[in-house]
Structure formats: structure tokens, C-alpha cells
Design goal:
This protein has 300 residues and is mainly α. The protein contains 13 helices and no strands.
């Protein structure tokens, strides 16, 4: 580092660098306080036997992770999370893409469609879960009232072991497809019209051919972003389960984050709950890495 002689003025570069450090330091401090420190605490607690309210804490190595591997509850929660993600992600991405393609082709009514399809994204999932609990109610829900009016047996969407997880996935798709729609619509708007004009000159006439040869390849980066964010959001499912089913019936909707909540704040096993959080972070990291690797392989 260069030193300044007495009376020498600091250079413009040093002044700009100092100002830059001053400007970004609040953001760095916030990042450390809100992200890095909690993450470090979770890492440390995951290898201890700490219980909430306890005074003793002991280092136990990977024992918590071994207990996860031996636990039927943790295994079921992981499997339910994977099943939920497998239901939500493909459906949300496909519906969002189709809606974006349809709306992008509309002229005067495009703004109205955009507003209508954007609304689910503005609602908090906790509030909408309460609304959906009424819609899917086994006795007074509008769907079952209509079924009974037609002489059909009501469907127990939220108490049937086989139907409850797909029902929660349907609610998540309803909201996540709105997010996918917004991102895909932005991606479609960024495609230059000259590309389609050139395709018309090359006699790429049908809508399917234009989509397959032009639109879909140009949407590849957008699709990777949508897949990544939708997958992470599906892995983070908690509020739906906490409001609608509390992990039931018979553990059919016990997902990873809800199991973490139970272990940490109902059974006060903070160390074990931290190990579950580390497992969740590992899942998200692996999925994100695989999707980014696949996207880079597709790039020319």
C-alpha cells in the first residue's frame, strides 16, 4: 500500500475507493448479521446436543446426522418433500410457460390478463391457505357442495392420506405458476421481433415450429432461473402444512421444514433441528448446482 507524504493530497482513486467502502459497508454488515452469523450458528449447533432452555451443551460430532438417517420421521419428511417438489415444479413451470405464451399473443387485453394472472403472487400463502381450507372443506367447501348437489360423494381433500399431499401441491402450483408466468412473460418480451421476422422469411411458419426452433431455445436462460427458483420455493414448503394439516393425516404431509420446526421448537432439540436445517441447505445446494451445470452444458 502506498503512503502519502506530509501535505500530499489523496489521489482520486483512493478517494473513490474509500467512498465505495463506506457505501457498501452497511450492506455487508447486514449480510453478516442476517445471513452469515445465523448460518455459522446453525453449523455449530448441528454438531451439539443443545436443547432449548438447557444450560449444558456438548459436542457430539455427526451423531445428529446419524440419528436423521435412522429416524423414520425424518425419512418420511424428506420423502414427502421430494414428492411435493416433484409435483409442484413441472406443473408450475409448464402452466406458467403456456400462460405466458397465450398472454403475449393478446393485444388490447394483455394488460388485463397480466394483472389477473399476477394476483396469486401478491397474496401471502398463509392467508390463501385459510381460503383454500374453506374451498376444500369436506362438508361445507364449494367443491364438495357441488359434488353432493350432483349426487356424488364428497372428497376429503385434506384428510385423505392419498389425496392430501397432491391437494397441497395443487395450492402451491396455483401460486407458483403465477411467478413462472411473470418471469416467462418478461423473457418473451426480451426476444427481438426481428428474430421472428427472419424466421418468417425462412418459411418457419407454424406456431409450433417457431416455438421449438426459436422461442424455446431463446428462453433457455429464463427457464433455468424459473426451474431453480421454483425448486427452492417448493423445498421451502412450510406455511401450507402448518396452517392446513400440521403434518397429518398420519404424517402424510410432514415435510422437512415442518419436521425441523417440530424438533426444534416443540421438542426443544435445537441441535437435532439444526442438523435437519443443514440437510435442507445441502439439498438446495445440490439441486442448484446440478441445474446450473446442466444450463452451462446446453450453452453453445
Amino acid at each position: 500500500m502506498t503512503t502519502l507524504a506530509v501535505g500530499e493530497r489523496p489521489s482520486l482513486r483512493d478517494s473513490v475507493a474509500f467512498d465505495a467502502v463506506i457505501c457498501i459497508s452497511p450492506a455487508i454488515l447486514l449480510l453478516v448479521a442476517m445471513t452469515l452469523l445465523p448460518l455459522a450458528a446453525v453449523v455449530v449447533l448441528s454438531v451439539t446436543d443443545y436443547q432449548l432452555g438447557g444450560t449444558d451443551i456438548h459436542f457430539i460430532g455427526i451423531e445428529n446426522f446419524m440419528r436423521i438417517g435412522e429416524s423414520d420421521d425424518a425419512g418420511r419428511a424428506i420423502l414427502n418433500t421430494l414428492r411435493f417438489t416433484a409435483l409442484v415444479v413441472p406443473a408450475s413451470v409448464a402452466i406458467g410457460l403456456v400462460l405466458a405464451l397465450l398472454v403475449s399473443a393478446r393485444g388490447r387485453l394483455r394488460r388485463a390478463y397480466e394483472l389477473l394472472l399476477f394476483l396469486p403472487l401478491t397474496a401471502t400463502m398463509t392467508v390463501m391457505a385459510i381460503v383454500w381450507s374453506l374451498l376444500l372443506h369436506g362438508q361445507i367447501g364449494p367443491i364438495n357442495v357441488a359434488l353432493k348437489a350432483m349426487g356424488l360423494a364428497p372428497i376429503e381433500f385434506l384428510s385423505n392420506v392419498e389425496l392430501v399431499l397432491p391437494s397441497l401441491a395443487l395450492i402451491a402450483v396455483w401460486q407458483q405458476s403465477s411467478f413462472c408466468f411473470v418471469v416467462f412473460l418478461a423473457g418473451l418480451s426480451a426476444i427481438p421481433t426481428e428474430v421472428y421476422e427472419a424466421a418468417a422469411l425462412d418459411r418457419v411458419g407454424s406456431g409450433w415450429e417457431r416455438f421449438r426452433r426459436i422461442t424455446w431455445p431463446l428462453l433457455a436462460p429464463t427457464t433455468v432461473v424459473v426451474l431453480l427458483l421454483t425448486t427452492i420455493k417448493a423445498f421451502q414448503v412450510f406455511d401450507l402444512v402448518a396452517v392446513l394439516t400440521q403434518g397429518g393425516p398420519q404424517g402424510a404431509t410432514d415435510v422437512l421444514l415442518y419436521e425441523t420446526y417440530l424438533q426444534a421448537f416443540s421438542y426443544f432439540r435445537i441441535g437435532y433441528g439444526s442438523a435437519l436445517i443443514m440437510l435442507f441447505i445441502a439439498f438446495v445446494g445440490i439441486v442448484s448446482t446440478l441445474q446450473m451445470w446442466f444450463a452451462r452444458r446446453r450453452q453453445p
